Amino acid sequence: MSAADLSPFNSPFAAGTAGPSVRAVKDPFHGDLLEVSMGPQHPSTHGVFRMVVTLDGEIIVKLKPVFGYLHRNHEKIAENTSYLGSMPYTDRLDYLCSMTTNWAYALAVEKLAGQAVPDRAQYLRIIMAELTRLVNHSCLVGFLFNDLGTSFTPLLYAFREREKILDLFESLTGSRMMCNYQRFGGCRVDPTPEWLAAASRLVDNFPRFLDEYETMLTGNEIMLARTQGVGVLDAAKAVNAGITGPCLRASGYNYDVRKVDGYGFYPRFDFRVPLGAHGDTYDRYMMRVLEMRESVKILQQAFRDLPAGPIMDPKSKLRGFRPKAGEAYGRTESPKGELGFFLVSDGSPNPYRYRVRPPTLINLTLLEDMCLGHTIADSVVILGSIDIVLGEVDR
Amino acid sequence: MLGSGIIKGLAVTAKNFVGSYHDPARMVTEQYPEERPKLPEAYRNFPFLVTENATDPMGTLRCVACQICEKECPPQCIYIEKSKDKKPDATGKPQLYPAVFAIDTSVCMSCQICVEVCPFDAIKMDQVFEVAATNRFTGLLLNREQLAKPNSYFHQIHPTDAHEVDTRLAAERKAAEEKAKAAAAAKAAAAAAKPATPAPATATPAAPKPAAQPPTPPTA
Taking the CA atoms of chain A, what radius of gyration do you get in angstroms? Predict the structure, then answer.
């Protein structure tokens, strides 16, 4: 890593008109720069996200992300609610993947209280987390193609598959998206053998959908032209900015919390971490597709090895839960990156401090660096490939 | 060849288009208002209060106004006022009841925590989903009369759960009855034994305190 790699980022607060890729202006008819406010009600910003874009013609010379439109005081609410009471609120952080968010929070509280989790619950957690990864990534690729302009067909094919997994979640936990499934020391409901059989069948059929999807889209010339070499993010910059998840791995840096931390029972599973080479939008898309294939492998192993037994630690209790004073940080590899919960307990029923490390907010910080020099239409695609959820960005 | 990727993609789209007319795996759209969705048993939306008897819903609420759900509810959408008097519950034990029990369903997020913390199986999750009101303030603020639904309804929507709850409650009631009967028998035995052995009060074995025992259930 050279000194040049460690150069300061294009901060949203610094004057960014002199970015590396501002083209030399020799055109006598060249006009002034134009500042456009994109969002928060723009359909391509995936929620209430706003970008203040300075344009030279169609080329972006400066981009300032503005967020906070969906801020709802999540951390402060959690500091005034019991530990159990914030569990349903964590569903609403990343509302596409409530199971992994639940797990990250449960992991932090279990660390804080020193609780053990039975084997069956550990396996169930992995099953739920990997099903959630399938949900999230199939959503993401669908939306990415929507951003590319293939209005709706790829999105609906992806949503058709996602819907099947959400039906499974609904029949198990009672809700499609707000699952509220994990508890401190285990899981809330035990799936029936019929549920497991249905889930296993779905997972076995999933690669067929991926193959069809890839036949339809991965070789598409328009898609290749629009994504290859667009929004390049180099690994050194990504590491310095704290980017995690598929965005970091697309740049070729091997960092996966499932491998690094080995939380839960992940060390027992045989899976590979896909890595990109260029760090462009195309790599970020392929990363999601390959991760889905790896998730299918993990799920098949989990269904094969799922042990019988209790799903809750008998010592855990719902009411009057007061962990002793201390602090804990629990982190998981959510589909979007490293999702962590930092909790400080003072021995009372509420956490003294509750902090979320949201992957998408941190992944957004390099949006300007990825977008500079590209057209405004590309910025939409780059934003789509980062995979943000505003519920988690703004909290 | 340039363009072959697009043609391959179009072939997939064509396959899906044709399949959407005959292949059940690709016919996924439900014609909702005409075709009612089949809800899974676990489906939950908004809590309701369980009553034992459909003819007298307010008299047979299982809720004893302990206010645990009110305290645990994350968005604080439950409001309970305890009664001043006591009414006998299903086992005949005099219990408090909620004079006011209101849930603001416009705030409720159907998280099920009230159900999990309730020690009396008095509050359960409903499956209503077509909820609309014409008044934005009071239309969705449900009071106890609107919340109360009979146990038979609970059996209808969550059969497995309801069966488990009923067996457990029946076992508890039976145990309580037997305990009460045993206490009554012990009391009678102590009363019968008292005149026979006029020993000093300090020497008598400690008889069970009547106050600590649940009274015998009156005939319903």
Answer: 22
Q: Which residues in chain A have Cβ-Cβ distances shorter than 8 Å to B6?
A: 220-222
| CA–CA separation, A114 and A343 (whole Å) | 13
Between chains, do B113 and A88 touch, taking CB under 8 Å as contact? yes
Look up tokens 């874009």; give the residue. A53
User: CA A105 to CA A89: how far, in whole Å?
Assistant: 10
Judged by average pLDDT, the poorest of A43-57, A238-252, B84-98, B119-133 is: B84-98
| Distance separating alpha carbons of residues B154 and B145, to the nearest angstrom | 16
pTM: 0.82
CA count, 13 A, side-chain hemisphere, A317: 8
Residue of B nearest to A179 (CA): B111
Report pLDDT digits (tens) over B104-149. Answer: 888 898 888 899 888 888 898 988 888 888 888 888 888 888 888 8
Chain B residue numbers with beta carbons less than 8 Å from the beta carbon of A224 are 5
CB-based contact A303:A203 (threshold 8 Å): yes
Cβ separation A82–B68 shorter than 8 A: no
State which H helix or E strand residue A385 sits in. helix A376-386
Please write the tens of the pLDDT for every residue from A285-333: 999 999 999 999 999 999 988 888 888 887 777 777 888 888 999 889 8
Pairwise CB contact (< 8 Å): A222 & B41: no
- Distance from the Cα of A282 to chain B's closest Cα (Å) equals 15
Q: Any residues with CB less than 8 A from the CB of B165 and at least 6 apart, and which? A: B121, B154
* Position B184 confidence tier, pLDDT thresholds 50, 70, 90: confident
- Rounded to 10°, the helix A281-305/A119-148 angle is 150
Across the interface, whether the CB atoms of A89 and B74 are under 8 A apart is answered: yes
Question: What single-letter amino acid sits at A333?
Answer: E
CA dihedral A373, A376, A377, A378 (to 10 degrees): 30
> Helices A119-148 & A98-113, crossing angle to 10 degrees?
140
